[in-house]
Amino acid sequence: MSPVRPKSCRRRCPIPSGTSRVNLFVFGLGYSAGVLARRLAALGWQVAGTGRGGTIAFDDRAAVGAALGAATHVLSSVPPGRDGCDPVLDHYGEALRAARAGWIGYLSSTGVYGDCGGAWVDESAAIGLGRRSARSEADRGWQALDSRVRVFRLPGIYGPGRSAFDRLRDGTARRLIAPGQVFSRVHVDDIAGGVMAGMAGPPGVYNLADDEPCDQNAVIEAAARLMGIEPPPLVPLDEAGLSPMARAFYTENRRIANGKARRILGWRPAFPTYREGLRDLSATTSPISASPAPPRLSPVQR
Fold first, then answer.
1. Where do the H-state alpha helices sit in 158-287?
2. Are 102 and 15 contacting, i.e. CB atoms less than 8 angstroms apart?
3. Which segments within 16-62 are labelled E, that is strand?
4. What domains are defined for the chain?
5. Taking CA 25 as the corner, what is the angle to CA 59 and CA 75, rounded to the nearest 5 degrees?
6. d(CA 35, CA 110)
7. pLDDT digit string (tens) for 114-127?
8. Tens digits of per-residue pLDDT, 138-171?
């Protein structure tokens, strides 16, 4: 019986010899990786992992080792810890190198590019120049780990339970006056689609972002229109009372280019801009009904 594979990786998906089924093991089965896991499980994949959505404790070395031994594909969505180190590389780097899996993936962040003054940036740009130094080191560590590794750099993630609708409902949405400031974003479903496309593509680094970076105000305003409410008032950035972490997002300005993933992986975002993404969320959920926010994740659950 041949392995059950997603359509996007039927031709070149690396499956170890002697394996009858495709088996994904995830370090950090949280929000983004969970969407991928559900899509693959629906296609007949076996999926196991650590984290909030997993059944294996991260520090259970025997269970993790057994899962790695059975995996045809391995993905980590775990960010660096507070000590700046990548816990997966630190605890399981050697086991990953020795694993039989034909494919290894890592969910990184486009924050590794730092501030680009609002310019377009692709995978050839230098990393490690911004505030995400630990993430940049982890990104490099995964690239150096093994020739099977694919690194997927992600901008701001939105989707069910994590969108402008939710922020408008709970009163945390803001419109800030920050001329020239833009952000890139990606729908969580498009992350899953990009990783699946990457299962058929060559090793390397890929940006997974939508086609239209824009200021955050445009997203809030579009969501408010779909909800039939007024958007929050405009507030000067310096008067918004943002936390240091929130304020730090406005110290970096960049537009993320997705051309490499399009050319090499054949990936096309199902939601090329925030407009399509918000319309889909509006159609599949009730924007005016309360929706609890997902629980905050620990570093090993992301």
1. 164-170, 188-198, 216-227, 244-249, 259-260, 274-284
2. yes
3. 23-27, 46-49
4. 7-287 (3.40.50.720)
5. 95
6. 20
7. 999 999 999 999 99
8. 999 999 999 999 999 999 999 999 999 999 999 9
